[in-house]
Structure formats: structure tokens, C-alpha cells
Design brief:
By secondary structure, the protein is an alpha/beta fold. It has helices at 14-32, 45-51, 57-65, 89-99, 122-125, 163-179, 194-207, 220-229, 241-254, 293-306, 310-325, 343-355, and strands spanning 2-10, 35-40, 68-73, 103-109, 130-136, 146-148, 155-157, 183-188, 214-219, 236-239, 262-266, 272-276, 328-329, 339-340. The structure holds 3-isopropylmalic acid and magnesium ion.
């Protein structure tokens, strides 16, 4: 198969980790006889510097014309003082909205090799943990009207949801739950927010289409608490945009693997944008230190969800586990007695493991 992939390396360590991921994808292409064509485009701080805007229209167009998008990370202290209108993060929101990527999948997986990095006591985290946070990504308070009063002494942000927006993310989540443990937690703030009341009513209605999946509702504050109290009660979590932003960081961190976790942002036709959960780490950019694994695992999700290449995806995931088993560690995950390697060595080892 031939596939067109738009690369958006972005800022900080973005170019370092994208470069290694491209090597891994090329190894997949050679092994399975696929042709992956890459087109690089700019977004984030680097695009502000060069074009005066975080998301140039040419970047959005290149992404729209591709089969999938692979993104590194955007942002950095250099652009931190800019107003809301031209921050690097605007590129992310623009891509999400502009590409219609309403469904954000954030797996939170405990790598047995990194168990020591987990912040929970061993008896709470257990031997394995594998959660999936399904976050609504193009609605809610992120995209509602916002502003300041004329006097500047008050401000507002608006959270709104339509039934259609809730239905489509709910169906995605039920579809995923059906392929896993058939348990779905819907997280809201139904006791306070009107959007949450609409959310819960809609989720309950959609649930009738999935009688084989157990549905539970939980308030977001309680969910935040339950995640650290007993994470094993969850399997798939579905929630609105901002709750999902917060809970997905929490779920990622309890695995101790935030630097290892991938994400996918999808729409109905399986088109998707793939990026690591971590940020741009500008302090270590270009120094051959960054961990490329989260981005490489994001590419594995791309193979699975957008290209339907399950065997290829598993090959990449197995290659990652294989190099971890061999004791290779980048600086962020190294503990005494293990072999510390740089970004390039980690990428090459995984590419070699893919080649078999
Ligand atoms: C994320 C990030 C973004 C978000 C920021 C960088 C805009 O935190 O992808 O979770 O809030 O969605
Ligand atoms: Mg976030």
C-alpha cells in the first residue's frame, strides 16, 4: 500500500523524535512492502517565527490532503509571553478543529519494565494497567465563546455541547469498549453543569445500542480520586474535552510512563493525527537525549487506526518492548544498572527490531 503522511515536527524535541519515528516507519515499509511518502510542514512556534502564525494555511492544506498526520510537539518558553491569539498551542486547536478530529484516544499503559517509575504503591498499581481515555476534542469550553468585559475586570469562557457531538464520541467509546473489557465509564459533572446533564442523557440513550457493554457514570471529581485510589476499576473512560484533558494526564502519570504514551485524534473516516502525550521539552532539544518511544508508539496507532495495518502496528509495539527488555533506556526512564542511550540509538534499535 502507498500512504501519504504529513509530518509536523513542531518545536523543541519535536524534530528529534519525528526523525526516529520516520526511520521506524521506513523499516515497516521495507518489511511489509508499503510505501510511506512524507511531506514535512511547519506549525507551532517555528511557524510563528517564520510566517507570523502558528498554523499556516499551507500546513492545514497539506494535512488535509494526506492520509494521516504525525506531529511532534509544539511550544516553548520563547513564545510563552504571547497573547492567546498567537501561541504555538493554537496550532493544535486549529488542526483539531480544521481536520474535524473529534475523538482523542489516550491509552494509559503500564510498561512492566518501567514499574519502578510508577507513583502508586505496588499493591495499588498491580502488575499491569491498561486504560483508554476517550476524550471529546472539538467541543466544550475549548471552543466556546470567550472574552473580557469592557472594563477588563471580568472574563468568561463558554462550555456548550450539542447532542450530535455527544452521540458521536459516545459511539466511538462504546465501539472501543466492545473490543476490550466491555466496561465504559462516562465522566461528567451532572450535579452542576447543564452540558453534563445533556451528556448523561445522551450517553444513556446511545447505551441502548450497546447492551453488551456495562455503562457507569461518575462525577469528574470522584473519578480523579478513584483513578489514584483504585485504577483497576476502569477500562475505557469517555468524557468531554476539558475533563478529558485533565484526567488523561492523571491516568498517564499513574502509569509512570507519561514520556512513553502515544495518542490518536480521529474522525469518522479513520483519518487521524498522531502525537505523543508529552510536550516539547525545549531544554533538551537537539541534544540526542529525548525519548522517541511515545512518538513511535503513536505511529503504531496510525498503522492500526488509520491504515488498518494491525500486524504492522503490533510489530512496532513488540519492537519497543523488545528494546526495553534488552535494557535500553533513554535518560528519562533509566535506573541504575540499565544502559542509557540517546534518541538516535533508541530509534535505530527499534527500527532494527522492526526489520527483524
Ligand atoms: C493536550 C494539551 C493541549 C490541550 C494544549 C497544549 C492545548 O494539554 O493535548 O492535552 O489542552 O488539549
Ligand atoms: Mg493536556
Amino acid at each position: 500500500m502507498q500512504k501519504q503522511i504529513a509530518l509536523v515536527p513542531g518545536d523543541g524535541i519535536g524534530p528529534d523524535i519525528i526523525r526516529e519515528t520516520v526511520e521506524v516507519l521506513k523499516a515497516v515499509g521495507r518489511r511489509f512492502r508499503h510505501t510511506f511518502c512524507f511531506t514535512e510542514c511547519l506549525a507551532g512556534g517555528i511557524a510563528i517565527d517564520r510566517y507570523g502564525t502558528a498554523l499556516p494555511s499551507s500546513t492545514l492544506e497539506t494535512c488535509q490532503m494526506s492520509d494521516a498526520v504525525l506531529l511532534g510537539a509544539v511550544g516553548g518558553p520563547k513564545w510563552d509571553d504571547m497573547g492567546g491569539d498567537e501561541r504555538p498551542e493554537k496550532a493544535l486547536l486549529g488542526l483539531r478543529a480544521g481536520l474535524g478530529l473529534f475523538c482523542n484516544l489516550r491509552p494509559a499503559v503500564l510498561f512492566p519494565q518501567l514499574r519502578k517509575a510508577c507513583t502508586l504503591r505496588p499493591e495499588i498499581i498491580g502488575d499491569e494497567l491498561d486504560l483508554m481515555v476517550v476524550r471529546e476534542l472539538t467541543g466544550g469550553i475549548y471552543f466556546g465563546e470567550r472574552g473580557r468585559s469592557a472594563a477588563g475586570d471580568s472574563a468568561f469562557d463558554t462550555m456548550s455541547y450539542t447532542v450530535m457531538e455527544i452521540e458521536r464520541i459516545t459511539r466511538m467509546a462504546f465501539g472501543i469498549a466492545r473490543k476490550r473489557k466491555r466496561l465504559l465509564h462516562s465522566i461528567d459533572k451532572h450535579n452542576i453543569l447543564e452540558t453534563s446533564r445533556l451528556w448523561r442523557e445522551t450517553v444513556k440513550r446511545v447505551a441502548r445500542e450497546y447492551p453488551d457493554v456495562e455503562l457507569k457514570h461518575m462525577y469528574v471529581d470522584n473519578a480523579a480520586m478513584q483513578l489514584v485510589r483504585n485504577p483497576h476499576q476502569f477500562d475505557v473512560i469517555v468524557t468531554e474535552n476539558m475533563f478529558g484533558d485533565i484526567l488523561s494526564d492523571e491516568a498517564a502519570m499513574i502509569t509512570g510512563s507519561i514520556g512513553m504514551l502515544p495518542s490518536a485524534s480521529l474522525r469518522h473516516d479513520n483519518f487521524g493525527l498522531y502525537e505523543p502525550v508529552h510536550g516539547s521539552a525545549p531544554d533538551i532539544a537537539g541534544k540526542d537525549i529525548a525519548n522517541p518511544i511515545a512518538t513511535i508508539l503513536s505511529a503504531a496507532m496510525m498503522l492500526r487506526y488509520t491504515f488498518g495495518m494491525e500486524e504492522e502496528a503490533q510489530t512496532v509495539e513488540r519492537a519497543v518492548l523488545q528494546v526495553l527488555d534488552a535494557g535500553l533506556r533513554t535518560a528519562d526512564i533509566v535506573t541504575p544498572g540499565e544502559e542509557k542511550v540517546g534518541t538516535r540509538a533508541m530509534g535505530s534499535a527499534i527500527a532494527a527490531a522492526v526489520a527483524g
